[in-house]
Amino acid sequence: MEKMTNRIKSLVKKYESEVLEADENIKLLLNNATIIPDHTDINNDIDKWLDIKSSSLGKLQHIASYLPKQENKDGK
């Protein structure tokens, strides 16, 4: 059970990292598009990062269902 929990925790961190990376890239592209010279398809890149964020958020929701239920300290 511990190996499964560790694997799930690892995946949660991976997906959380992908969400943060996507957020930062979306903000960068929206606020500082001129820092990328000769880049003509910014909308496509924003769309790509939105897909990554959406996918990772969905995976976070799904993987959470595999976490073992926490028992109360009184055993309930």
Overview of this protein structure:
Helix content is 70%, strand content 0%. By secondary structure, the chain is mainly alpha-helical. It has one domain (2-64). The longest helix has 30 residues, at 2-31. It starts with a helix and ends in a 12-residue tail after the last helix.
Features:
mainly alpha; 76 residues
Shape: rod-shaped
Distance between the termini: 20 Å
How many domain units?
1
Q: How are helices and strands ordered from N to C?
A: HH
Radius of gyration: 18 Å
Topology:
Elements: H1 2-31, H2 42-64
In short:
The chain has 76 residues and is an all-alpha fold. The chain is built from two helices and no strands.
